[in-house]
Amino acid sequence: MVVFVALLMTAAVFALVGYPLARPGRGEGELVSTDRREAEDILARRDDVNIAIEELEFEFHLGNLSQRDYKELRARYRQHTDDILRELEAVQ
Amino acid sequence: MADVGYVALSIAFVLAVYAAIISLIAVRSGQGDLWLSARNAVWAAVALTSVASAALVYALVTRDFSLRYVAEYTSRDLSMPLTVSAWWAGQAGSLLLWSWLLAVFAGVVLIQNRRQNKELTPYTIAVIMAVLAFFLGIVIFADNPFEKLPATPADGLGLNPLLQNKGMLYHPPTLYLGYVGFTVPYAYAMAALMSGRLGNEWIHASRRWTLFAWVFLGAGNLLGAQWAYTVLGWGGFWGWDAVENASLMPWLTGTAFLHSVMMQQRRGMLKFWNLALIIVTFSLCLFGTAVTRGGILSSVHAFSTGPLGWALVGLIGAVLLASLWLLWRRMPALRSEHELDSFVSRESSFLFNNLILVGAAFAIFWGTIFPWLSRAVQAGSITVEPAFYNRVTGPIFLAMIVLMGLCPLIGWRKASRENLVRSALIPVAAALAVAALLYGQGVRSPPALLAFPAMAFVAAAGLQEFYRGVRVRVRGHGDSPLWALPRLVWSNKPRYGGQIVHLGLILIAMGVASYFMYSTDASGVLAPGESLSVGGYELTFNGIEQRSTESRDIVAANLAVTRDGEPDGTIAPEMVLFRNQQSVMADIGLRSGLREDLYVVLNSVGEDGRVGIQAFVNPLVTWIWIGGGVMLAGTAIAFWPDRRERRVALHLPEMELRALEASRA
Description:
The complex is a heterodimer.
Chain A: H1 2-22, H2 34-62, H3 67-91
Chain B: H1 2-29, H2 32-61, H3 68-73, H4 80-85, H5 91-112, H6 120-141, H7 167-181, H8 183-195, H9 201-231, H10 242-267, H11 271-294, H12 308-329, H13 346-377, H14 386-406, H15 417-440, H16 446-476, H17 481-491, H18 493-518, E1 520-526, E2 531-534, E3 537-548, E4 552-563, E5 566-571, E6 574-578, E7 583-587, E8 589-592, E9 596-605, E10 611-619, H19 622-639, H20 643-649, H21 654-664
Helix pairs in contact in B: 1-2, 1-6, 2-5, 5-6, 5-7, 6-8, 7-9, 8-9, 8-11, 9-10, 9-19, 10-11, 10-13, 11-12, 13-14, 14-16, 15-16, 16-17, 16-18, 17-18, 18-19
């Protein structure tokens, strides 16, 4: 009985693990291409900057930042966003 | 069934090795079919480790004493819940638990990354599977839970009496969820190093895993402390034992990592720190497993001795070597994108936070391994007493508490002096008020006059943060005051979940500081009618009661309690003889309240009817457990998906992707 179950498990494992190798082509697109990677990186950085701007606004309204610091930092983040958009246009 | 379990483990071991190697080959060569095959191997490993775990649990609940493991850790009179908990009572079973959890976590990683992190995931899986292969190898070749006895005994030896407690049901698995959980952020970090994708991708991917592992490791520590408090009978909850230290250290460095990654996300800073912190945290998790299960350091907790400890030390060495080599290779890419704008900024407070937490972990590590080191160089070993840890970590934790209060008051990049003064006004006033109150009550101890005002400072700063946020929502968003607070928390779950965690930590600190500074105790031998006084209580011995169960003989001392002269019920500490193991244990009498605990231990029962009693009055200890619950709630909030994360996860919507690909075709 144990031998039978062991053989059954082994056969199932072989089938599961070997199937993608026996039917090539199904794995296309499973690993990211360089083109997608570049655009993904840029968009991820854009999202991070947008979150940082949101938090900056919130910190200012909470009273943790002075008007002067808030304006200076917002200008820096906006510049950063412009740079990222230019990178994105270059990729596209 | 047991043989099926062993076969399943053996196949799982082969699959883990296969998946580790093939994942790496697949991602380096860009062969998607190989990656599919490796992924299926992971799923097969999940299934097979589950089969093996089920086989062991089946053997335990059916009391299959033909297996050595079942005979060593269970007996016919053991309750069913404790019988199931024997899964992690011994080394072999707990290694199987480690392996099963890790396999399941690998499966979860695959599910989470069905449509994202396609370059990181194969590397991550390779690392996880390599660690899984190690643990499965130990189980199969060195410590097999399915090993059979030459002859089947009629009954087992039973569970260690110290472990026959409900704490056995939740303390070890909670700790294991933490230890094993930290494998995943570590694997993501190695994936980042191997792939060269050293931006925020791996941080985003591992954030929730870090929270998960951190909260379970913290909860495991607290549950262990509570178990020790209610069982061991010495009136305390933390003895700076090697195993306790080994689970605290990764929690400290994990805390540093949890905070430090925010710097990388916000400002592209501390990249090297973050990688180093998770490497150290994972290594300390392995060290914790080695200390608990491998017996390389002597401890009341260490459950076994043998070669496992040294095998784990070997794994730690390999992990450190490989990780540090990868880190060294990528050094040029790990430079910070920005510099510190100001010494008084949230960035610098995070850096100090890292230094403080790592410093505390280092001090504890040094104290933990010192006895072993001293044994290696001289005859006999030098014991490091709890007083060393208290003296060294006390000021460090005080500094951490102050930083916890300061950080929310300071903005990112810089804090102007006027803003800082305005923000700190109320918290400082709260601290001074508490200091004045304590001084007025006659408190003169410098640690007390520093610690409690510091806690008041943090609590006030935290509550002020909530108040200001509510005010912004009422004025800026038009929320009603009733709904503003829940909406505030829900609109920024990581931030406000974190604040709730901080408040929970303050409650714990309050309980711990009160215990260490103001706990009192008294002991005596009492004849019937005689009394013992301690901390405002009088305990009068009324007599002995004896009873027996199927496996135990119990002697209880009945004590009438009087508080400040008024009758206040009774308390009955016990001594329990476990007949199977011929072992005697004290079962304490505990009365817990928000203000203090009355904790009574029956130390001896004389033939003349006199009893030896020790009684403690421990102030504010209950707040430690309440604080743990608050921390858990805060972490659950921080863990919940946030709208910001959904935006990051979907940062490449299908339409944009198709447009990009069309333009490239």
